[in-house]
Amino acid sequence: DSGSKTKRRTSLESLATKLKETMASQEGPAPGNLLPPEVCSLLNPAAIYANNEISLRDVEVYGFDYDYTLAQYADVLHPEIFNAARDILIEHYKYPEGIRKYNYNPSFAIRGLHYDIQKSLLMKIDAFHYVQLGTAYRGLQPVPDEEVIDLYGGTQHIPLYQMSGFYGKGPSIKQFMDIFSLPEMALLSCVVDHFLGHGLEFDQAHLYKDVTDAIRDVHVKGLMYQWIEQDMEKYILRGDETFAVLSRLVAHGKHLFLITNSPFSFVDKGMRHMVGPDWRQLFDVVIVQADKPSFFTDRRKPFRKLDEKGSLQWDRITRLEKGKIYRQGNLFDFLRLTEWRGPRVLYFGDHLYSDLADLMLRHGWRTGAIIPELEREIRIINTEQYMHSLTWQQALTGLLGGRARAMHTPSAHVSRRPIRMRSRGRCITKALFNAQFGSIFRTFHNPTYFSRRLVRFSDLYMASLSCLLNYRVDFTFYPRRTPLQHEAPLWMDQLCTGCMKTPFLGDMAHIR
Ligand SMILES: [Mg+2]
């Protein structure tokens, strides 16, 4: 009736007034001024972001992973991996012909998701081990929140420490961390979709293992290496920039080394393409088929030298020589032979666990993470739509926080409207990144599990190695001092999303 409508309108108006008052009195600037768009549009995808203060002046030795670090691959690789693994499943693992109708969907999954094998659930988990509601999928279908909560004993908390190992490889729950896992998740979801859709009985563990093995076959049997070798122009991105990064470091007297799990012939062809036939002159040490991450932890595997034809030599390795190629080995021998210890070494890799975790936790090298997704996510963060959506959410959250403090307000009279508006807004923001799973860095207000690992294991992170070209070789990265919850935000950059202190933002506005 009209009476209650008027009442509702009045309460909406008072809500808006209250919102403005709350923001003005307690939370800093009014919502409209919270995020000056001209500031935030300067967030640059080619910037390097620091978790920890680091001065490049102190770094004498630069180490690199190869795949997805020195060699950045085009996304066209993903559908090819998907198709090849799907066909291997049909032809070698005798899976139903019906799965051939599935094609790779590049916008289905994101990196860092967890998979519960027994429950066939693909889901996004936050830094506190809670599944983000609305991000659990079985096959290609979303699983209702109530069902997810029911499956985990009445809570959305996932007991990861019981179910998954440190490297996300536990018995029941796996975390998809590398970039190859995008086609893997997509294929797994399609196969589960087919089996469920056709009412076929299956063992979840067998199905998971077969899909994983089929994807691994694409690598191990060398299919992927063949594709890349046959058309480097198509698959390898920014090779010139990789060359520029490496040669600039050498010109400034830095030592370089390479530790990769890939075989020599593959790395050699790629490096010849990017750098030229003399690429080995840039590196002090080259190690192939290193078997990371056990390279960092297992002392028993000795280095072996390869001759020019790639055959193994049997002599004992007492020093690591420039221009030679070594296979396997371990980090303990590497440290003993090179004496490259501690914070004067900076190692770049794309895999948070296989490349960076042990170096950060056990050996004290500085680390740089290559996260290609940053480029796209920053472009989304720079859109007006995202900024408005986030500003509105923050304003509502501020209002809710302010209201919670007003203890005298009888709870029966508190409108649930801001809560509903906030959750609707959060879903809209999530879908800007990925309709199913949202951003790889955020689950609504919290960091994701992936994000927390990224912050813990890397000093620096960036979309691609080429971002280094935007900084001097003696540059010091200062992370923004983000206030802890019990600290007061004192500067403007802490009141807004805080992109103002990102180095060189003004100068870099023209890049890419
Ligand atoms: Mg890699």
UniProtKB/TrEMBL annotation:
The keyword Hydrolase applies. It comes from the Eukaryota. Its cofactor is Mg(2+). Mg(2+) binds at D65, D350. GMP binds at D67. InterPro entries: HAD-like_sf, HAD-SF_hydro_IG_5-nucl, HAD_sf, Pur_nucleotidase. The active site is at D65, D67. The keyword Hydrolase applies. Pfam families: 5_nucleotid (PF05761). Binds 1 Mg(2+) ion per subunit. GO terms for molecular function: 5'-nucleotidase activity; metal ion binding. Keywords: Hydrolase, Magnesium, Metal-binding. PANTHER family: 5'-NUCLEOTIDASE DOMAIN-CONTAINING (PTHR12103), 5'-NUCLEOTIDASE DOMAIN-CONTAINING PROTEIN 2 (PTHR12103:SF14). Belongs to the 5'(3')-deoxyribonucleotidase family. This is 5'-nucleotidase domain containing 2. It comes from Propithecus coquereli (Coquerel's sifaka). The lineage of its organism: Eukaryota, Metazoa, Chordata, Craniata, Vertebrata.
